[in-house]
Amino acid sequence: EAGVVQSPRYKIIEKKQPVAFWCNPISGHNTLYWYRQNLGQGPELLIRYENEEAVDDSQLPKDRFSAERLKGVDSTLKIQPAELGDSAVYLCASSPRRTGLNTDTQYFGPGTRLTVL
Amino acid sequence: AQKITQTQPGMFVQEKEAVTLDCTYDTSDPSYGLFWYKQPSSGEMIFLIYQGSYDQQNATEGRYSLNFQKARKSANLVISASQLGDSAMYFCALRGDTGRRALTFGSGTRLQVQP
C-alpha cells in the first residue's frame, strides 16, 4: 500500500513569492492533516479535513495561508506571500475513518522543506 | 489544553543495549491516546507504537514497548536491542478524545546509537 505522497520535497523561494504544496493521502483515508514543523520542534497542526470539509483551521494564518481538498482526496496548501518566518517543514498526514477511541493513527508523508530567502 | 514534555534533548546508547526515552503529558480529557513517532534525517514521521488511556496492558510492537504509568502521566518508550538504524529523532504525541483530534507533539529526543 502506498504511503502519503507529498511534493515537492524541497522548495527555495524569495520572500513575498507564492508557494504551493501538494499532498496525496493514503487511499481510503478520510481525514487529512497539514502540520508545520519548525527547526528543533515537534509538528504543529495547521488544518484538518474530514473528507472535503475543513473542520479545524484555527491555527492556520488565514491572511496568507490557504488550503483546499477537492473531492476529498488530494490537498493543496498555499502561502501567498511567503515570509522569512515561514521557513519550515510542511508535513501532510492522513488517517482512516475513526473506528474507536483514539485508535485512528496518523500516517505522515515525507514533508516539504521550505526555505524562504 | 494538552502538553507533552520530553526532557531529554539527546541520548546515546551502545548498539544492542536497551534505551528508555522519557515522555510526560498533561491533558484534561478523560480518554486519550499516546503515540510515539520516529523521524530519521530523511524527514518522514514513522509511527512506532500507540497506547490508549484505558488499555490495561502496556503496548508492545517488536523491539518497541511503552511503559505507561497513568497516575504519573508518563509514557516512556523503551527500545530493546538498539540498532544503528535506530538513530533518529523520537517524538511523543498525545491526542485527546474530545475537541481537536490533532496530535500534540513534544520537542523530541535525538537518539544516537553507537557501534
Please tell me about this protein's structure:
The complex is a heterodimer of chains A (117) and B (115). Chain A has no helices and eleven strands. Chain A has strands at residues 5-7, 10-13, 19-24, 31-37, 44-50, 53-56, 65-68, 75-79, 88-95, 107-108, 112-116. In chain A, the strands form two sheets. In chain A, strands 2, 4, 5, 6, 9, 10 and 11 form a seven-stranded mixed beta sheet that branches. In chain A, strands 1-3-8-7 form a four-stranded antiparallel beta sheet, with no helix packed on it. In chain A, 0% of the residues lie in helices and 47% in strands. Chain A is globular, with a radius of gyration of 14 Å. By secondary structure, chain A is mostly beta strands. In chain A, β5 and β6 (53-56) form a beta hairpin. The mean pLDDT of chain A is 91. By secondary structure, chain B is mainly beta. Helix content of chain B is 0%, strand content 52%. Chain B contains no helices and twelve strands. Chain B has strands spanning 3-5, 10-14, 19-21, 24-26, 32-39, 46-52, 60-61, 64-69, 74-79, 88-96, 104-105, 109-114. In chain B, the strands form three sheets. In chain B, strands 2, 5, 6, 10, 11 and 12 form a six-stranded mixed beta sheet that branches. A four-stranded antiparallel beta sheet of chain B has the order 3-9-8-7, with no helix packed on it. Classes of the chains: A mainly beta (117), B mainly beta (115). The interface between A and B is medium-sized, with 24 and 28 residues.
State the gist of this model.
The complex is a heterodimer of chains A (117) and B (115). Helices cover 0% and strands 47% of the residues of chain A.
Mean pLDDT of chain B: 94
Low-confidence stretches of chain B: none
How much of the sequence lies in strands of chain B comes to over 45%
Oligomerization status of the protein chains: heterodimer
How many distinct helices of chain A?
0
What is the CA-based Rg of chain A, rounded?
14 Å
Distance between the termini of chain A: 37 Å
Q: Count all strands of chain B and give the number.
A: 12
- Helix percentage of chain A: under 10%
> Helices and strands of chain B, in N-to-C order?
EEEEEEEEEEEE
Structural shape of chain A = globular
Query: What is the averaged pLDDT score of chain A?
Result: 91
Largest β sheet strand count, sense and barrel closure of chain A: 7 strands, mixed
- Greatest interface by residues involved: A-B, 24 and 28 residues
Q: What would you call the shape of chain B?
A: globular
> Which parts of chain A are unreliable, with pLDDT below 50 for 5 consecutive residues or more?
none
What is the string of SSEs of chain A from the N terminus onward? EEEEEEEEEEE
**Share of β-strand residues of chain A:** over 45%
Individual helix count of chain B: 0
